[in-house]
């Protein structure tokens, strides 16, 4: 958090084995695509891991951009802590994780929300407090 990045972390798990790890780095690396979910997916791909049976665990609801990547790679399940009010891929007006209007996106991922929600919310509040004092 002290490097300016929000406290977002993600892991991809397949057959009870972590196959990809990602953490938010968009601000510190000046690259908007460095979201934790995309970084976990990139890590799994780099390690030549199939993603279609994977479970993505992440602290925040994947945004629209991350949701597109999740759907493209047919990730089976998405588990997250807190919602992303305006740009979340499941709960905003842009329900990329749930749409059935894209022909190539065959199966919607199962969505499990609110896991460790209070802990994820506490991290976000701490980040906002730290960054408001900079």
Spell out the key features of this protein:
single chain; 134 residues; alpha/beta; five-stranded mixed beta sheet; 3 helices; 5 strands; globular
Give, in order, the helices and strands: EEHEHEEH
Tally of extended strands? 5
Largest sheet: 5 strands, mixed
Task: Give me the number of helical elements.
Answer: 3
Distance between the termini: 12 Å
Q: What percent of residues are in strands?
A: 15-25%
Average residue-wise pLDDT: 90
- Shape from CA axes? globular
Question: Would you give an account of this structure?
Answer:
The protein has 134 residues and is α/β, with parallel strands linked by helices. Helix content is 27%, strand content 22%. A five-stranded mixed β-sheet has the order 2-1-3-4-5. Helix 2 links the parallel strand 3 (55-60) and strand 4 (77-82). It is globular. The N and C termini lie close together (12 Å).
Note the topology.
Blueprint: E1 9-14, E2 17-23, H1 36-46, E3 55-60, H2 64-72, E4 77-82, E5 110-113, H3 117-132
Parallel strand pairs: 3-4, 4-5
Antiparallel strand pairs: 1-2, 1-3
Summarize the structure.
This protein is 27% helix and 22% strand. By secondary structure, the protein is α/β, with parallel strands linked by helices.
